[in-house]
Amino acid sequence: MHKHLYVYMLKCSDDSYYVGVTNDVNRRLEEHNIGGNTTAYTFSRRLVELVYFQLFSDYNQAINWETQLKKWSRKKKEALIIENWESIKMLSECKNETSHKNYEEE
Q1: Where are the alpha helices (DSSP H) in 1-106?
Q2: Quick check: 5 and 61 in contact, CB under 8 A?
Q3: Angle at the Cα of 83 (from 14 to 25), degrees rounded to 5?
Q4: Distances (CA, A) of 75 to 5, 37, 80, 82
Q5: How many other CB atoms are found less than 10 A from the CB of residue 20?
Q6: Nearest-5° Cα angle at 20, 62 to 44
């Protein structure tokens, strides 16, 4: 059993992003670019480029981070890639009509 996992993000040839998890990020990048699985998201979007990865020693943390990243907006993913923490914070703020920020304390 592997002792670590990587959560990674690829930039595809159509400028979309793909997020995945693996125990060997270099092997996985090569597999995406070879295109062995014709039904994979990245197959028709090759060549792909590794733009982000993070190493985890805890399996559940890695899966949770992958799941969270997949839900992020494009702008938020791009802020992560360039490590713009202030933008990530701003993009994470709730902007819904019902946000607590829209209510004044009495």
Answers
A1: 25-34, 59-71, 74-81, 85-92
A2: no
A3: 60
A4: 25, 28, 9, 11
A5: 20
A6: 180
Distance CA(6)–CA(103), nearest Å, equals: 41
Could you read off the pLDDT of 41-84 as tens digits, one per residue?
999 999 999 999 999 999 999 999 999 999 999 999 999 999 99
Give the separation between CA 88 and CA 12, rounded to whole angstroms: 22
| Mean pLDDT, rounded, for 94-101 | 63
Which value, in Å, is the radius of gyration of the alpha carbons in the chain? 17
3 pLDDT tier (thresholds 50, 70, 90)? confident
Does residue 47 have a cis bond before it (omega within 30 degrees)? yes
The domain ranges of the chain are 1-71, 73-106
Distance CA 50, CA 61 (A): 21
Range 1-71 classified under CATH 3.40.1440.10:
yes
